[in-house]
Amino acid sequence: MKSVLTRSPVAIAIAWIGLYLAITLFPLFVLLLYGAPTGSTFWVDFSVALGFVGLAMLALQFALTARINLIESSYGIDIILQFHRYISLIAFALVIIHPLILFITKPETLGLLNIIEAPWRAKLAVSSVLALIILIVTAIGRKKLNIPYEPWRIAHGVLAVLAVAFGLGHALGVSNYLGLFWKGVLWSAIALFALWLLVYVRLVKPWMMTRHPYLVEEVIPQRNKVWTLVLRPRGHQGMHFQPGQFAWITLAISPFRMREHPFSMSSSADNPERLEFSIKEVGDFTSTIQDVQPGTKAFLDGPYGVFTIDRYWDSAGFILIAGGIGITPMMSMLVTAADRQDDRSFILIYANKTWEDITFREELEELKQRLDLSVIHVLREPPEDWSGETGYVDRELLERYIPIHRGSRQYFICAAPVMMDAVEIALHELDVPITHVHIEHFNIV
Amino acid sequence: MRYSLMLQVVSLMAVILVGASGLFAWLQNRPTANQSPILESEVSH
Question: Is this complex scored with an ipTM above 0.90?
Fold first, then answer.
C-alpha cells in the first residue's frame, strides 16, 4: 500500500475521490430502490437530493478533520484541511440551494421560514443553516474578525455538531421519505459515525495521549526569536517519527481541553527519546514558549505528515527549499540523514531577511562535515561584504542550483505561502515533475 | 499551484454531485411502464 501511495499519487487520489463520491451519493442510491413518494416532482426530488448530498458531505467533514492516519498518510494534513475548506463551501452551497428550489417551485413553502409557527423539522433546518452560516463566516474571516485560535476552534467544533445534528433531525423529520425504513437506518448510521468520530477526537485520543506523557527537559534559545523545546518521554519509549513530520503539542494542561498546536520536530528521527520542536514567536501561544519551565508536562498527538524524505528511499538526493522558520522540518531531515550516514546529496536553499536571522546557522555549518550538503543562503537584506545570493528564491536562482536531471531528486518546500507558491510555480516552469515537489505549510490552521 | 489543481478537482466533484442529484430526480419522476405510450398501445391491442 505504501509503495502505491508513493509511486502513484494520481491513482490514489482517484480512489479517494471515488470513495468520497460513493459515500456522498449512497443515500440517494438507497432512495432509488424505492419509488418516489406521491405528489413528488422533478424539482422537489432534485431539491431533496441536493439536501441529502449536502448533509452527507457535512457529516464527512468530521472524518476529514479527525486526523485519521489512513486518510492523512496519503497527502498530509494541510492538503486534507484545504480540501475540507473547499468542499465545505460546496456543501454549504448545496444546502442553501436545497430550500431555494422549493421556495421558487412551491412558493407556499416560504411559510416554513416563519420560525414561530413552522413545524419542528423546519425550525431544525433554519437552525442548521444559521449554524452553518456562522461557521463559514467565522472560518473564512477568523483573522479579519480577530478571533483568537483556541476559542474559534472550540466554537467551530460546536457549530459543526449543531449544523449536522439539526440537519439530520430535519432530514429524519421531513415526512417525504421518512416512511422509508432504510432511510431512517441510513441517516442514523451516518449520525452515529459522525458522533463516533467526535468521541474519538475529543475523548479517546486525549485519553491515549495522557497514557504517554512527556516532560520539558529544556528550552534552548535560537536565532531570530526561535525557541527549541526539548521533550523527553516519561514512562514510555517516545514517539517514533519520520524526519519532516509534525505533532500537535499540548503544554502544561490536560489534553482533554483541546488546546493543542501543531509543530514540526527539528531533531533526529533516530532519537525518539529526545524530541525537539523549534518554535518561532509569532502569536499568543508561541510567545510563551520561552517561559516554559523544565519539568512542565506535555502531551503529543502524532506523528503526522507526509513531508518526509523517508518516503523516497530510492531518490538520488534532495533539494530542500526553506524560508525562515520553514527550516524546522528540513533540520530534522538533515540531522537524521547525518545520523544514518546517508551518502546522498542534499542541497538546502535557505531564505532569510538578514545574516543574523538565520536560525540553525552554525548547526548547518557543522552538518556540512557529516553530509554531502550544500547550503545556499539567500538574503533579502545582505551585509555589505556579502557575496552570496540575494533577493528572493526565483526561477533564475533555482536554475543555477538544481540538477539538469530534474526528476532524479525530490524537492521539499517549507516557507511562507507567498514564497511557497512562487517556488512551486518556478519549479514547474523548470520542468520539475509535480509528483517530485512536496510542500508543507507551517501555518496549517 | 496544487491548491488551484485541488480547486479544479473540487469543482469537478461539485458538477458530478449536482449531476447525480439531477439524475436521481429524473429517475424518480421518469414515466413509468404503465404510462408509456408504447406499452399502452400494446395493452389496447
Answer: no
